[in-house]
Design brief:
The chain has a single domain (about 20-150), classed as P-loop containing nucleotide triphosphate hydrolases (Rossmann fold, 3-Layer(aba) Sandwich), CATH 3.40.50. Helix content is about 25%, strand content about 25%. The protein is built from five helices and seven strands. It has helices at about 10, 25-35, 55-65, 100-105, 105-110, and strands at about 15-20, 45-50, 80-85, 85-90, 115-120, 135-140, 145-150. A seven-stranded mixed beta sheet has the order 1-7-6-2-5-4-3, with helices on one face. The longest helix has 13 residues, at about 25-35.
Amino acid sequence: MKVKGKKKSEIRNPKSETFHTSSPEETLELGRKIGEGLKVGDVVALTGELGTGKTLFTQGLVQGLGVKGYVKSPSFTIVNKYEGSLPVYHLDLYRLGDVNEIYELGIEEYLYGDGVCIIEWAEKAYSFLPHGYLLIKFFYTGERTRKIEITQR
């Protein structure tokens, strides 16, 4: 993983950067380091195929924000809220079909709320995302390896 030697500000505000992880532990750690630099109002949009590490990465983000305990994907509940150094809203849009369902969810409350908003399957909500969100794309490169592209939008 190419995070060593990076300052939090360099990881937190990349224009565009690519990381390669060779284990689930490295993916979790990258998420944790990025989570440490998040602040109120930040939106993190995650995209990638099933099983590429979005939820694992989110567990790291949430750890970096000081949340204790287990973090699971809100696939059926759509939204989980966690309390850490600030509120964390974790959304999973996988089961939502269209823009109307996302709107009815009240997504603006989470995007413009009092904490950090992390969205899995964020490609379904691009039209709602505020300027300056962090887009993180996950790609398989092997059984345990991933390419993770991070872009500030």
